[in-house]
Design brief:
Chain lengths: ~130, ~450
């Protein structure tokens, strides 16, 4: 459940290059550790985010955590569905549970992120 | 070390002390103090007068306390943030019950359902009074609640400037500055004009940088603000409207801030069933819209159901708070004024909508009678023209501080000499008339002023 085509952060966010833009969410590992997500605070459209700086807050029945941007850039869209349905993050973390669509300042920043194998090692999962 | 002597209020005997010392393995009480340097210790007996009898002691203390003036014996025309309203006996009869009257605020849902339900009712009643959607379980006082609202507005808007009307209580404004000084928030003063906040000047000061416009209703001078247009001006630039309240009793009569579009209402709840208490403990109120609840500081009690479907009350949304969110918390406040909030809840429930409105009406009528009566005295004129609730400002023919001194001699607490906060209002005197002031007292004040030479 850790797709090969994604890049990962040590803070358990994923990034997917979609054309010139980057879609961002949190990994299955993070979603499972948090358990039921009840609230997500995301930046507004047009906000600037910086790589590995916080861009929002995720709250579950167990904990509250900061969200870290995998890449610097401008927020094109924040997932509007999460306001009413934060549970999408648990149900479909790589699909409907996405958080931000970012116009990257420099997409080369993606190269500095973890590959799927590096990420699996980080969380103690067997590497294919 | 002073030798141990038995005392009627300390139940410990010499045998008890020896027993405790043996248990912890220390030879003498003196050994417990070895860590305190001798140079800072008082190595002799306290220099106290001979022990009085209980009767003598009570007589002396009574004599001391009678040197205080209080609003029961003096006719109090002082408001300015603390209000002498009548408190029905039931309020403190119930609030003083031992189930409530504890030394600390109990939040354990397992054993404190009564307390939590009371807090929930306080929140609900405060929302009804202010026209807001959600209230916290209370804070320290009006000044700190206004400051908390300022920080909340900054967090909600991600903006770093607030515009504060100078018709907001001067002490609230000072506390706003203290709270925000190290948060990089710039506090800009909006000068009142003829006792109210000028809308046009507000528009000039408000910008895309403004997190909030802070006004008070009724304002510090007792005047009514042009709330609709002030709300419009704030919202036009995306700023929030924070409404400070010094006496929420007014909202039983006036259109409440929520209906004017206020985003946060913060202020003082003392006038709701709480005594003057020498200036504290008071009761900080903070209410807002549902959409902003996660940025709200302070404790919040919610209603829920248990595993068997029964109604229950618990602290809720605690992830905003410092013990969970640490440095990201909405505020460092982790407590509230539970007993004072309880008194406010009982007060509001006891009076009901109609009763509270009656209190507000009597306040307004008596204050307007007083203003008319006092303005007939040569040299005394209303300083401002607009409508007022239960406070008003008079210009005086002599120093208001001097007038106050002379009134005290005849058992009257005069108004606030405004020069203390507003140097250009040195001849101005802020008076308050609640439902507790009788027509006779107002006439006596007028006659005393007439006779002053």
């Amino acid at each position: 459940m850790y797709p090969d085509d994604l890049k990962y952060t040590k803070e358990h966010e994923w990034a997917r290059l979609e054309g010139a833009r980057v879609r961002v969410g949190i990994t299955l590992f993070a979603a499972e550790r948090l358990s039921d997500v009840v609230f997500i605070e995301l930046p507004a459209q047009g906000a600037k985010v910086k790589q590995l700086q916080t861009f929002g807050v995720i709250e579950s029945v167990k904990a509250v955590s900061d969200l870290y941007a995998p890449i610097s850039g401008t927020v094109v869209e924040a997932n509007p569905a999460l306001a009413e349905h934060p549970e999408l993050v648990n149900q479909d973390p790589y699909g409907q549970g996405w958080m931000l669509l970012i116009e990257p300042a420099d997409s080369a920043e993606l190269q500095g992120l973890l590959s799927v194998d590096d990420y699996r090692r980080l969380i103690g999962e067997p590497v294919n | 070390m002073t030798p141990w002597t038995a005392h009627k209020y300390i139940s410990l005997t010499e045998a008890d002390r020896q027993h405790m010392l043996r248990t912890i393995g220390v030879p003498s009480v003196e050994d417990l103090f070895t860590d305190v340097p001798r140079s800072v210790r008082l190595l002799r007996a306290l220099d106290l007068p001979p022990v009085p009898s209980d009767a003598e002691l009570l007589r002396e203390l009574r004599g001391l306390s009678e040197r205080n003036g209080d609003a029961d014996r003096f006719a109090c025309f002082l408001g300015a943030g603390a209000y002498d309203h009548f408190i029905p006996s039931i309020v403190w009869h119930l609030a003083g019950r031992s189930e409530f009257y504890t030394a600390y605020t109990p939040y354990q849902a397992e054993i404190m359902q009564g307390e939590l339900q009371a807090a929930y009712e306080y929140q609900s009643l405060l929302c009804a009074l202010t026209g807001m959607e959600v209230s916290n379980a209370s804070m320290y006082d009006g000044a700190s609640a206004t400051a908390e609202a300022t920080v909340m507005a900054r967090d909600l808007t991600h903006r770093d400037e607030v515009v504060v009307s100078s018709a907001v209580h001067p002490e609230y404004r000072q506390v706003v500055r203290t709270y925000t000084r190290h948060l990089g928030v710039e506090v800009r003063d909006l000068l009142h004009q003829r006792g109210v906040t000028p809308v046009e000047m507000a528009r000039d000061l408000l910008s895309e940088r403004t997190a909030a416009l802070i006004v008070q209703q009724p304002n510090f001078f007792g005047g009514l603000e042009d709330m609709g247009r002030l709300a419009e001006a704030a919202h036009a630039v995306g700023a929030l409207l924070v409404v400070a309240a010094a006496d929420p009793v007014a909202y039983a009569l006036l259109k409440p801030p929520g209906e004017w579009g206020a985003d946060i209402v913060a202020g003082e709840g003392q006038p709701l069933g709480n005594h003057l208490n020498f200036g504290g403990p008071f009761l900080g109120m903070l209410a807002t819209r549902q959409a902003f609840v996660r940025r709200m500081p302070g404790r919040l009690v919610g209603r829920t159901v248990d595993t068997q479907g029964r109604r229950g009350f618990v602290l809720t949304l605690q992830t905003r708070e410092q013990h969970i969110r640490r440095e990201h918390a909405t505020s460092n406040i982790c407590t509230n004024e539970a007993l004072n909030a309880l008194a406010a809840a009982i007060y509001m429930a006891a009076l009901g909508r109609g009763g509270l409105r009656q209190v507000a009406e009597v306040c307004a009528r008596r204050a307007h009678y007083a203003m008319g009566r006092l303005a007939q005295i040569p040299g005394f004129t209303p300083a401002f023209e607009g409508p007022t609730f239960h406070e008003f400002v008079l210009r005086c023919p002599r120093d208001p501080e001097e007038i106050n001194g002379r009134l005290l001699d005849v058992g009257i607490v005069g108004g606030l000499a405004l020069g203390r906060f507003y140097p250009d209002l040195g001849d101005s005197w802020l008076l308050c008339v609640t439902e507790n002031r009788t027509r006779e007292e107002i006439d006596r004040l007028a006659r005393t002023l007439e006779a002053m030479r």
